[in-house]
Amino acid sequence: MTSSSTPSADTAATGAPRPGGSALLAGRPVSRIGYGAMQLERLHGDRPAAIALLRRAVELGVDHIDTAQFYGDGLVNGLIREAIRPADGVLVVTKVGADPDTGGPVRIRLAQRPQELRASVEDNLAGLGVDQLALVNLRRADSGPGLRAEGDQVVDIDDQLAELVALRDEGKIGAIGLSSVTVDGLRRAIPAGIACVQNAYSLVTRDDEDMLALCVAEGIAWVPYFPLGSAFAGMPKVTDEPAVRAAGQALGSTPPQIGLAWLLRHAPNVLLIPGTADPDHLEANIAAGTIALDDATLAALDAVPTRSAAVALPATG
Fold first, then answer.
1. Among 198, 159, 172, which Cα is nearest to 119's?
2. N or C: which end of the chain has fewer CB within 10 A?
3. Looking at the whole model, is its pTM more than 0.85?
């Protein structure tokens, strides 16, 4: 799903300007505002609408899409396979470390053992219809909200990386990333070659500031999930902050746009993957890349206190 053409730093392969500008991911420039495909599952009853949403993202210059085979038990990967063309030059990033659990309360279960990672790579290859996955994120269970490993799902990161490096050597994956990882885990993984880190991070949940600094120093892309705060009940949300609302009112923007714009300004290696199933929300997310935060507004946002995003759930949900 990656075009053989080489787009410029400012434009995608389609010729559209890259939303938010560009930054490097797995050695190539991509739009700093990409698209997280998880919420496409909400359009399971309207496949044409889901395809149209993906096509609109590409038209708007998005050339970084984040997915996983366990999103909708293969539904989302199938939509991407149908909608995204080689000429679009889209870097499709997927992840392993979990499998679908449609009957469970959180609809996924951890699949951390090396043989499970390999099986998930094969499932992603088949679901996306490609010979190589450009970038695969290892979804750990070490930090942030979500599942925690128990029993045979407690697997040393070195064993997991050995399997992913073998898959990379076999040509089945192009690059390796990490998700829900600690800074110590990242340090252990860096010698294997890490392209990106996906952790829960936003204006109101900045526990991983040291890890972000390490990623900047090592040239590793920082791809925050929950960029507007957590979807879990009781967790902090960026849009609830008075400083965010005030900035939005002053700049004629929405609070979510302010939260995304702050992330883009906060560090040069930040790549965003906001997800939505709504075309209007997609347009609004893309427009966040044009918002300029002046020094006074930025200082007010920087002063917002950080809160913990850690909510652990058992490994089986």
1. 172
2. C
3. yes
